[in-house]
Amino acid sequence: MFENLKKIVGEQYVTDDPAICYSYSRDQHWNFVPAKSPACIVMPGTRDEIREILLFADENKIPVIPWSTGINVRSLTIPVHDNSILLDLSRLNRIIEINEEMMTATVEPGVTFGQLMEETVKCNLRPSFPDAPLTASVLANNYLRGIYQTSSADGHDHTLSFEMILPNGELIKTGSRAFSDMQHFRYGIGPDIAGMMAASPGTWGVVTELTLKLYRVYDFEQAYFVGFDSVEDAMPFIRDINRDGLVESCRLLDHHSYITGLFGTFDYDYEKLPEFVACILVAGIDGIFQAKNELVKKHISESPGKLLDIPATLSTHFREETIAGSEKSCMVFGLRGNYHCIGIYGPLTHVPKYWELHKKTASDAGIPDDHVYFYVNPIAPFYGQLCYIELDIFYDGSDAEMGKKIREYNNLQFPRLLDAEIYGWFRPYAGIIEPTLDRIGYQAELWKRFMEIADPNQIMNRGKLF
Amino acid sequence: MQPEEMKEAIYRCGKCKLCSIATYHPNEKSLPICPSGEYYRYQAFFAPGRLEVLRGVLDDEIENSEGLLKVAYACTLCGACYEKCREISSIEQNHAEIFEEMRNLLVEKGWMMDAHRDIMEKVSETGNAYAAPVSEDYGHGKREDTLYFIGCTSRYREPEIVDAMIAVLEASGEKFSILGDETCCGSVLFRTGQREAGEVQVQKNIRAIKESGAKRIVFTCPGCLMTFKKNYPDLGVELLHSTEFITQCLDRLPLKKLDMNVTYHDPCHLGRHLGIYNEPREILNRITNLHEMKRIREQSWCCGSGGGVKSAFDDFALWSAGERIREAGDVADILTSACPFCKRNLAEAADGMEIYDVVELVKLALEV
Ligand SMILES: Cc1cc2nc3c(=O)[nH]c(=O)nc-3n(C[C@H](O)[C@H](O)[C@H](O)COP(=O)(O)OP(=O)(O)OC[C@H]3O[C@@H](n4cnc5c(N)ncnc54)[C@H](O)[C@@H]3O)c2cc1C
Ligand code: SF4
Ligand code: SF4
Asked: Ligand 1 atom 28: the closest Cα is on which residue?
């Protein structure tokens, strides 16, 4: 295998050295997915090399794991099978185009959010940011259909089109790309192929280029922080400002955890804040901003919430974190040394129920109350009162006992959440796939069959889904 | 360091890889800060990957290989990863120290670089890392309260720094001595995991310093200074870097302003490892026009030579230096540092850029 790959990419870009391979054997999700090394790492520099690698792997039925920047938190690039090739795509790191007129960017897999933002900001544009580190791949995150909780106004779908090399070497282009040089429309002809293949951990083919939406950076902005004593108290306020499309960002969170990331500091007396805080950013062009701002102020004054006086530096940081490049969200690691979360989609109406369930399951699994946190992010347009809800547990990563409790939490919580009714999961990964497949009937079969057509020898990240 | 402590660091790493870039806001730039990862690209060469490899070593899951040696030794131990990780996570587990400890583990198993073994042999045979004939030129032979500890690199490779420091000491009116038979402080041995050989140097120097009767030691080499602070027992002697010494007597020195546009490169040992960031800047602001680069202080880009990299992976060391030279060229005509080892490596990659140690500019400012 090594010799064949060497012929394709040259000696410098392939290794089967066990120590180097070992560094790809585990991610932050180690409590759930055992460490395993790929057999070799290959770093192609061109599409042709990717194609040749796939053809070689397909012919020899060798599992291939695409890897763009490796920042995922669900062991999506940890091999399931022996003798896997890890396809490190970080050398393909060109921003192919920033189209100011069309408000789009086209990127290769290795382009990070930091890299992209550096360029888009020059034309007052930005991508939608996940709470992921700025080192994460824009392409992989959008292809995985990340959670863009930093801005509620951006909505959920930012991918317009992409091109993908399949295991048989064929190139497919989705949306308007399929038959034109224009990459800016999601639906070219027939079914939404991009939609079908998205949110997939590298199980169809290798995406080599992706076009995504960019959003305006406005001159007029105002941040508000509103304290609530209970989740229930905050619900009507959150519903109304999102239903009327008034806010750029909106996150209701507990006063301990992710707020440190939004404020960018551990050095603040978070205890003095009310138990829940809604962090709101209003933005827009002048007239629209003024009108929205007045309405938001009115909603705040009519709510049971208390407008908080937050120091300007923290407020500026919140603004940066939400629309200029989320950088400090990872600070949550610092609270105890690791974090675990179950991310779900659900309606705002169900949020108090999810919060209660989170506390109960954690308690059933023996996890102390003070390790249990949560936040909710509404997503525009607010049909179905769509929200992303994160049920978090912050814990000491080096505490193996706590690792066991968190595994127990997951075992209990996955079916309980399905019973409580949710819209969907953050993304498919080990643990949630199994209980969910039981409930989706023939759709599971159809999904597998589609995948068999694209990847008959099941080389693409084999075992990661089914 | 105990294996448990290393494991704690390993198990607290969330693999965010933010330790590979400088803080984004407010520069609004995504600038790399881990030379090893940038050069070798594989995950193993970034801090989170290197921590994983250490896990393999601790759990006896990895055997010796060319790759393992490269992962362990092609890291400048610059500590940029630690500073950034600490900023975002508040986790205080020093990666540079952990990666040095990894080398100790490897050396115990006999897994080491030939270039480093070679240095150890040179030090034990000749007392210096360059196997240069012992130069007693600088020996003053006198007993004074202040001792100038020169270090191997300045003494045998960058003598201009020594000349400049002597001139500055003389201009300050400070009486000082220099050890005629000064021997390596052990820095390179400790940094490359050769703890036992390092200890031999420690004992030799303790004896020499006790005999010298010095009450304070001034160093132009931050590597020596750090080794004295970290690896030596408390000798009851004040330990100062040249820039600290000069700052203390700045008002006594008849310094003129030089018409020079300079930028300053923070040596990792001086900045990140010893927290000395302000003194060199105070001096340079007094005698030159100082223009800062984007990656400075805690998030400085390493020159690429430390941690035994220069001797074992010169291509990597020169590439890192080249990156720094380019960055310096964006803001100034002259690049200064406060470490002979930085100066040497940067000068090799200089591409026309003038490179000085801060003490050399102070000497120039005395002469104007
Ligand atoms: C602290 C932290 C917080 C995070 N918060 C968020 C968050 O708020 N929102 C969010 O969305 N994510 C979040 N993430 C997760 C992470 O950033 C995303 O999963 C990430 O964007 C994907 O990782 P990556 O880009 O490095 O891709 P990788 O880790 O390289 O790959 C992820 C998956 O995509 C597949 N893949 C990668 N590249 C390709 C390709 N070119 N073609 C086909 N398949 C490919 C891989 O096989 C793998 O299954 C967070 C991560 C961390 C560490
Ligand atoms: S910043 Fe810290 S937690 Fe993140 S990858 Fe680096 S070492 Fe690990
Ligand atoms: S010590 Fe420096 S070179 Fe080594 S991993 Fe950390 S940042 Fe990279």
From this structure: A70
**Domain, as residue range, for A414:** 336-431
For residue A406, give the CATH number of its domain.
Answer: 3.30.70
Q: What is the pTM of this model?
A: 0.96
Cβ of B28 and A69 within 8 Å? no
pLDDT tens-digit profile of A253-272? Answer: 998 888 998 998 889 999 99
Using the Cβ of B5 and the Cβ atoms of chain A, whether some distance falls under 8 Å is answered with no
Residues shown for chain A: 466
Choose one of A279, A299, A330: the last residue of a domain. A330
Q: Which domains does chain B have, with CATH numbers?
A: 3-112 (1.10.1060), 146-248 (3.40.50.1860), 254-367 (3.40.50)
Q: What is the pLDDT of residues B207-255, one digit of tens each?
A: 999 999 999 999 999 999 999 999 999 999 999 999 999 999 999 999 9
Q: Do A23 and B49 touch (CB under 8 A)?
A: yes
A390 and A304 within one domain = no
Chain B positions touching A91 (Cβ under 8 A) are 41
ipTM of the modeled complex: 0.95
Pocket test for ligand 1, best of A25, A68, A85, A151 (most atoms within 8 A of CB): A68
